[in-house]
Amino acid sequence: MLSKKMEAEFNTQINKEMYSAYLYLAMSTYCANVGCCGYASWLKVQANEEMEHAMKMYDYVLERGGDVVLEAIEKPQSTWNNLVDVCENVLKHEQYVTSCINHLMGVAVEEKDYASNSFLTWYVNEQIEEEANADELCKKTKFAGDDKNAILLLNEKLAERK
Ligand SMILES: [Fe+2]
Ligand SMILES: [Fe+2]
Fold first, then answer.
1. What is the tens place of the pLDDT at every residue in 23-59?
2. Does residue 98 contact residue 131 with C-beta atoms inside 8 Å?
3. CA 147 to ligand 1 center in whole angstroms
4. Residue 22 Cα, ligand 1 centroid: separation in angstroms?
5. Which end of the chain has a smaller Cβ tally under 10 Å, C or N?
């Protein structure tokens, strides 16, 4: 059985994972609108993954006899300055999510909730990959700079992500 404190923390994180999906979908829309379909597609896959993160947590809370309360999802911004701005904000957001997961893990440790601790290890490891992917995206996009050919090539590569 989940403690009330742990349950509340998980509910907050479920909302944040759903917000992440919303944010990446908004970024995907922006990229599609500026003609970067590869970036749009990459971000759409990213948004789907965030929903999976939310649902994995949703299932866990119910499995542990907890209650899921779905709160309103914050409206994400809808426009960015350019591709580099989008990528920098993906990285910034992933770094923020890592801090949230670390906080959640901290509460699990504090509460001696070993099941949640074990469950959250997956998210701790996932965030390593999330930050690395976002960082790579950022660096490549910055490196391409104003070179339209390089951006087009990157765009095609990013479209390959399933
Ligand atoms: Fe996530
Ligand atoms: Fe993420």
1. 999 999 999 999 999 999 999 999 999 999 999 999 9
2. yes
3. 31
4. 11
5. C
> Domains along the chain?
4-158 (1.20.1260.10)
CA gap 118, 124 in Å, rounded: 10
Give the pair of three-digit tokens for residue 96: 């923020």
Question: Angle 115-124-24 (CA atoms, 0-180°, nearest 5)?
Answer: 120
Q: What is the pTM of this model?
A: 0.96
Residue the block writes with tokens 């910034």: 92
Asked if 68 and 11 touch (Cβ cutoff 8 Å), the reply is yes
Q: What is the CA radius of gyration of the chain?
A: 17
Which ligand places an atom closest to the C-alpha of 52? 1
Q: How far is the CA of 23 from the centre of ligand 2 (A)?
A: 10
> Would you tell me how many other CB atoms lie within 10 Å of the CB of residue 28?
22
Kind and range of the H or E run holding 50: helix 37-63
HSE value, Cβ hemisphere, 13 Å, CA-based, for 3: 14
What is the spatial distance between Cα 28 and Cα 153, in angstroms, rounded to a whole number? Answer: 18
Distance 148 CA to ligand 2 centre (A): 28
